[in-house]
Design a protein that fits this description.
Layout: H1 5-17, H2 20-26, H3 31-45, E1 50-53, E2 56-59, H4 61-85, E3 93-99, H5 101-118, E4 122-128, H6 131-139, E5 145-149, E6 158-172, H7 185-188, E7 193-196, H8 201-212, E8 219-223, H9 226-234, E9 240-243, H10 244-249, E10 256-260, E11 267-274, H11 282-291
Parallel strand pairs: 3-4, 3-5, 7-8
Antiparallel strand pairs: 1-2, 5-11, 6-9, 6-10, 6-11
Length: 297
């Protein structure tokens, strides 16, 4: 085998992006150089790693095996770099943290900023994903830490409570549902919705719940972030489901009404998770400590 860590990063970036062009961009390589590196990997191994199609690329069985080992090798390389960084000033390490929509927008910004200020030699690779994809990535060794909803299966991972994260239904005060005492999710699906970006973890989660109910969410418009969603709801564009924390954070007196959702899937708790907290490298354990709720807080 004749390939290096750059090849492995390129290969994983290509799988995550779904095509070589985007994988090359993420790897800061030209398309020609990226294509040549992947062909050289396949040639040195004597096997096909990627199935090429009009819609992009997908891994062959051998390609899936390589991806598993590549993630572990890159994670070990990062840990090696961080361990050696303690002996060389100015060398930076990186923690990969995966989180869902609510954690990213409501709970993590200040915590992560404080952590970065206190640890100038550490960077954070932060990515938003649906909780189910986060747990899969952690099991595969693709990240050190994740923040997920307790609604997903965390078998094989260790977890610690992070935050309570109930979801609420919001509507304008002149909406037909505003006078109701309570509203079920199924009842709400007879009305138009304002949704988050279709690729956001919460948008995917809510649309899955609608499908479980045998219905679809009638999305009239999508917006980036809870603030924009709430402002559109307040002006009558439709209903929305957002974390209670997003409503509580609003300082402006927006004219909307919120309903607590009684469905079990809406009574969420966010969890910190990892394959093994005690086995995390010291830099990842430092981030874990910074994210854990402090006693008495």
């Amino acid at each position: 085998m004749h390939f290096d860590l750059i090849d492995l990063r390129l290969y994983l970036n290509t799988l995550e992006a779904g095509n070589i062009t985007a994988g090359a961009l993420r790897s800061h390589l030209s398309l020609a150089a990226a294509s040549a590196r992947i062909r050289a990997m396949e040639s040195s191994l004597g096997i096909t790693l990627l199935e090429r199609g009009r819609r992009g690329v997908s891994p062959t069985p051998a390609g899936k095996a390589l991806a598993r080992h590549a993630r572990l090798m890159l994670l070990q390389a990062e840990r090696l770099q961080q361990d050696l960084a303690e002996y060389a000033k100015g060398v930076k390490g990186q923690v990969r943290l995966l989180c869902n929509t609510t954690a990213l927008s409501e709970y993590l910004p200040e915590l992560l900023a404080d952590f970065l200020r206190a640890h100038p030699n550490l960077d954070i690779d932060l990515q938003e994903l649906p909780s189910q994809r986060i747990t899969h990535a952690l099991r595969e060794g693709a990240a050190e830490l994740g923040v997920v909803s307790d609604a997903v299966d965390t078998q094989g991972l260790q977890t610690r409570a992070f935050r309570d994260d109930p979801l609420v239904l919001v509507c304008a005060k002149d909406h037909p549902l505003a006078e109701a005492r309570s509203v079920t999710f199924s009842q709400s699906l007879g009305h138009d919705y304002v949704g988050l970006n279709a690729h956001s973890a919460l948008a995917i989660y809510l649309e899955e719940q609608a499908l479980h109910a045998g219905l679809r969410m009638p999305i009239r418009i999508r917006a980036e972030g809870f603030d924009a969603v709430l402002r559109m709801v307040a002006h009558g564009a439709g209903l929305a489901i957002v974390p209670l924390a997003a409503v509580q954070r609003c300082t402006a007196p927006l004219p909307f009404k919120s309903f607590a959702l009684q469905e079990p899937w809406a009574q969420r708790t966010l969890l910190l998770c990892a394959r093994d907290f005690d086995a995390l490298p010291r830099y990842a354990q430092a981030l874990l400590h910074a994210l854990q709720p402090q006693q008495g807080s």
